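Human: Not sure, check this?
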Amino acid sequence: MTQKAQEQEVSCPPNIKNNELSRNSYSLHSSLTFHLHTLWLFTVSEHFTIVCPWTAFGIFSALSGSPLTTNPTPDLFTIIARLPRTIFWMWLNILAFTVSNQRLPNSVAEDSVNKAWRPLPSGRLTLTQARRLLMVVIPTLLLSTRFLGGMEVTMMSLLFTWMYNDLEGADDSYITRNLINSMGLTAWSIGTTLVACGHGGYTLDPAGYHWFALEFGIIFTTLHIQDLRDQAGDRIRGRQTAPLVWGDGIARWSIAIPILVWSFVCPTIWSLGV
């Protein structure tokens, strides 16, 4: 390098380098924002239907203490302090499920009708990118539950996710669809309760499992209420849901009657005198 060239390099205005750093920083921020928003789009439909209710379920179950958990004197502030980790546990589990579900070609076709703003039908991600994302999400989920608690429940949830999505257990029959869904949702109830109780501290009381068995029965007999609004997408996908098999009217009665029955059964089992 000649002396003249060296002088030119040394005399390069500092504002040029600052502009390059600003552009790189802006690019990094834009990329991070894009990917975080993509994760948000995967799960946003489930925030008020799954994440919030199941988190609340876990917190209130932990606060109830015995006979649901082994904690005889639950402390309000200690359990409320576990709210962020309980939300995070539930959100990571629902992220794994939604990415697994929405990456399938049939799901993309269905979402193009029902939820075209989701990452794959909107073109934010390809099927290959979604598959690679899932390969990152699952290890992250398992590693997180190692510290948060509920790892065994998460492993069960991943098994049900595989049966529901990859083995198409949700498509063959509304019975298998309700069965797998009920097992997965009940597993999440147990998981949020364990996390809210405190990992390594308290766990479920044997009587608590009776409560979760009741929850499984309630979900199994009423879950097809969600299929009433998704009939257009389910018809395209060829799913054998209750509204499509029985008709809308019969499907609605098949939900109303179990709700009425469970309204008497649950208070009777718990001896509430209602």
